[in-house]
């Protein structure tokens, strides 16, 4: 009985083991490996300068890297299948366009693939010039070669400011160099910026600073050494002493000026006495013009109008013969003249102009530049002002400066001859410089330069220069309300220089 039970136990055990073994074999067949493939990262943003990119590849078998034959900027640097490491080299992008492609990782003997998207930024456009500045060009002139380094896609050119092209000339130009010739300088120190730029406007401009030294023989008071040519001049004459206003007018016309805007020009004005005389002045050793304006002993008007102002002025003529004394479009002029304000001159809060640059034609209402005397009506706070204004068509130029010189005390001028020098470029983007120097001691009372200002008027041919006394009554109706009095103003020694002469002056907007 015992033996039978033992035998049954052995049989059951054998059956169980057989069944277990059979089940285990089935499980191993069901656990066959499923192909898989993954990459990290799946997207690459590469720098324009190029770089190596590490890719981790997880795969159930060997794999292959596939790159399009047309793509020459992505390369396989190394591939370790066992370690699952792939290193791609992204070559530097020298173009100004970004680029992209896909690198394919393929699991061998399967259709399984994984794309790695590659994006590379465009190169930054660059333009570099050396030397960056040349600030010691000798006065006798010299040639300099500039080296130009630029990235692919940059097509460079250069620009010399128009007014500097007369002394800076191109000698030669190649892909990576520019040789310029700087001509001899007989005048003051001069300079500019030469602008190197990309025609495609992708690279930033590169500015090269240029300075040429002045000539050892340069005289800053001689406009001819700065390229200017004498156009005309006028002084008083001993022949005019004791003569009347008509004789002064005739004399001035021979030199391109005239004396026609004054009270003697109308029977409706205060015309019983002359308003100009010629006298000798020992301080400057020449005959000068003395302008006389009446407001207390009598009342002067404006060429017959006795309403609100008085005028006693000389000015340049504007016929074609005398265009050379006036500012024409595109020209530059230097105007030199002298004046003396008497002791106790009483201006007012209203206008009192002694000099104007004013259009003859076109928009000729407001003067371009005015030198004015100003003060309180009680005689305090007396000062010299310089005023810039625009015409009625403000869109033609830059903004009005208004009063840009103020609070220069008249006491510095009283009973003193001063030398005036005005440098003007006539353009909507012009220039005005004023220097006033006291002759007795050489003290500079005003030195002011304004660049990029509108010194033109729409429709004008001539910007004429005017001198004298032109002032307000303070009110209207022929009554003085601002406490002005009889005054004189001495004027002398008019000289005009010009460069960049307009060969055919015509109305210009």
From TrEMBL:
Organism's domain of life? Bacteria
| Signal peptide feature range | 1-25
Q: Which Gene3D superfamilies match?
A: 2.60.120.200, Immunoglobulins
Q: Which UniProt keywords apply?
A: Signal
Q: Which residues form the BACON domain?
A: 63-121, 162-212
> Known CDD domains for this protein?
BACON
Does this entry carry the keyword Nuclease?
no
List the protein's name: BACON domain-containing protein
Q: Which organism is it from?
A: Bacteroides nordii
């Amino acid at each position: 009985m015992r033996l039978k039970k033992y035998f049954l136990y052995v049989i059951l055990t054998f059956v169980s083991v057989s069944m277990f073994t059979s089940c285990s074999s089935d499980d191993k067949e069901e656990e066959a490996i499923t192909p898989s493939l993954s990459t990290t990262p799946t997207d690459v943003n590469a720098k324009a300068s190029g770089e190596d990119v590490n890719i981790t590849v997880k795969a159930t078998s060997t794999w292959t890297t596939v790159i399009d034959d047309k793509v020459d900027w992505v390369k396989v640097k190394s591939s370790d299948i066992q370690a699952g490491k792939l290193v791609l080299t992204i070559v530097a992008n020298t173009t100004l366009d970004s680029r992209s492609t896909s690198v394919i990782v393929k699991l061998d003997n399967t259709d399984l693939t994984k794309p790695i998207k590659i994006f590379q930024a465009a190169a930054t456009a660059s333009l570099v010039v050396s030397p960056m500045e040349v600030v010691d060009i000798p006065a006798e002139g010299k040639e300099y070669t500039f080296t130009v380094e630029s990235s692919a896609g940059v097509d460079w050119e250069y620009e010399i400011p128009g007014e500097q092209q007369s002394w800076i000339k191109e000698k030669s130009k190649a892909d990576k160099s520019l040789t310029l010739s700087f001509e001899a300088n007989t005048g003051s120190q001069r300079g500019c910026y030469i602008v190197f730029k990309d025609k495609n406007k992708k690279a930033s401009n590169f500015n090269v600073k240029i300075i040429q030294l002045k000539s050892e023989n340069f005289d800053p008071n001689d406009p001819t050494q700065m390229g200017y040519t004498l156009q005309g001049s006028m002084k008083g004459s001993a022949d005019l002493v004791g003569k009347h206003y008509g004789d002064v007018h005739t004399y001035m016309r021979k030199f391109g000026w005239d004396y026609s805007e004054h009270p003697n020009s109308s029977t409706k004005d205060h015309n019983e006495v002359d308003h100009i005389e010629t006298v000798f002045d020992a301080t400057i050793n020449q005959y000068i013009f003395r302008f006389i304006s009446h407001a207390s002993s009598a009342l002067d008007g404006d060429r017959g109008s006795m309403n609100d102002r008085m005028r006693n002025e000389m000015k340049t003529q504007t016929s074609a013969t005398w265009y050379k004394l006036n500012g024409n479009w595109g020209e530059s002029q230097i105007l030199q003249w002298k004046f003396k304000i008497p002791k106790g001159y009483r201006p007012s809060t209203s206008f009192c102009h002694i000099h104007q640059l004013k259009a003859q034609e076109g928009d000729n209402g407001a003067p371009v530049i005015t030198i004015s005397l100003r003060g309180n009506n009680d005689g305090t706070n007396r000062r010299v002002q310089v005023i810039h204004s625009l015409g009625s068509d403000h869109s033609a130029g830059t903004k009005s400066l208004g009063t840009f010189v103020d609070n220069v005390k008249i006491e510095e001028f009283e009973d003193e001859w001063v030398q005036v020098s005005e440098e003007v470029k006539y353009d909507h983007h012009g220039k005005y410089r004023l220097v006033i120097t006291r002759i007795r001691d050489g003290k500079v009372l005003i030195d002011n330069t304004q660049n990029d200002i509108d010194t033109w008027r729409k429709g004008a041919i001539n910007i004429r220069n005017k001198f004298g006394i032109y002032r307000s009554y303070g009110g209207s109706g022929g009554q003085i309300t601002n406490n002005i009095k009889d005054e004189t103003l001495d004027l002398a020694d008019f000289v005009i220089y010009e460069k960049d002469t307009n060969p055919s002056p015509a109305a210009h907007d």
